[in-house]
Specification:
The chain is of the alpha+beta class and 274 residues long. It folds into two domains: 140 residues, Fructose-1,6-Bisphosphatase, subunit A, domain 1 (Fructose-1,6-Bisphosphatase, Chain A, domain 1), CATH 3.30.540; 119 residues, D-Maltodextrin-Binding Protein, domain 2, CATH 3.40.190.80. Helices cover 35% and strands 25% of the residues. The strands form three sheets. Strands 3-4-5-6-7-8-9 form a seven-stranded mixed β-sheet. A hairpin with a 2-residue loop joins strand 8 and strand 9. The longest helix is centred in the N-terminal third of the chain and has 23 residues. The chain is globular, with a radius of gyration of 17 Å. The termini are far apart.
């Protein structure tokens, strides 16, 4: 068994371990704190789940680096060597509102590129995994949708636009509802990306700078499921790109046009933030 195969198995095992922590506290009245803003929430379950994920990975890879949303882990993916990118509860705002759409996300990367990923949604009883060859939901291989007509496509805005960037948020919603059949918003980037990978959604967009723990695992899943992921210029997305444009590949030009139109709103406002 190769080391990279090992990392696929460890990613899933670690994500399941963290998800079990989140699930144990879900709908149990857990205390909620705020971090950088009114909607930037965290719970003790986030911290405990991250520790559980890290502890599980370290049983097999004790010397690897960790990039994680909570506590003192790295916040940027190292350019060289192995690392693990962790979001203990992606969708914490859903979690604290008793909404089932949240995930524990774990991705293994080498030299900044993902090689394995797992998104476990414990309240939905779903587990998404991805290796070098494909993406799987509950052990069954999945692929992106075959929708090629934008007027049949369902697309989601994702990530979060701060209160001083709500014109861009509104533009994202407007672009989607005018270009595509319908819009969804799920409150968890990793859940959203998983749903593009399994064909439940046809695309997702944002023009903000994304955190690696919100994106890397799901991006790997979409790509291994046959989808396309670019930045706002249409170039291959990397963990340090601004913006995230994701589709089944067949409608990517239209999804990219929508994302660029959102960014035009930012440019007209003189935006130079992330």
């Amino acid at each position: 068994m190769s080391e990279r195969t090992d990392r696929v198995e460890v990613a899933e095992r670690a994500a399941r371990a963290g998800a079990s922590v989140a699930d144990e506290q879900f709908r149990r009245g857990i205390a909620v704190e705020t971090k950088g803003g009114k909607t930037d929430v965290v719970t003790e379950a986030d911290r405990t789940a991250q520790r559980r994920v890290i502890g599980t990975v370290r049983e097999s890879f004790p010397d690897d680096a960790f990039v994680g949303e909570e506590e003192d882990e790295l916040k940027v993916i190292p350019e060289e060597g192995p690392a693990w990118v962790i979001d203990p509860i992606d969708g914490t705002n859903n979690y604290v509102r008793d909404v089932r759409l949240f995930a524990t996300s774990v991705a293994a990367v080498f030299d900044g590129e993902p090689v394995a990923a797992a998104n476990v949604l414990p309240a939905m009883d779903d587990a998404y995994t991805s290796d070098a060859d494909g993406t799987y939901r509950d052990g069954e291989r999945v692929t992106v949708s075959d929708v090629s007509d934008p007027e049949r496509a369902v697309v989601a805005p994702t990530i979060w636009w701060s209160f001083d960037r709500r014109d861009e948020y509104a533009a994202a919603c407007s672009e989607i509802v005018h270009r595509f059949a319908d819009m969804r918003r799920f409150g968890s980037a990793q859940v959203t990306l998983s749903m593009v990978a399994d064909g439940s959604l046809d695309g997702t967009i944002t023009n903000v700078e994304c955190n690696p723990w919100d994106t890397v695992a799901g991006v790997h899943m979409v790509r291994r499921a046959g989808g396309t992921v670019t930045d706002l210029e249409g170039d291959r997305w990397t963990h340090d790109s601004r913006g995230l444009v994701v589709s089944n590949g067949r409608i990517h030009d239209e999804v990219l046009a929508a994302a660029r139109a959102v960014d035009d709103v930012r440019d007209r406002a003189g935006g130079d933030g992330p």
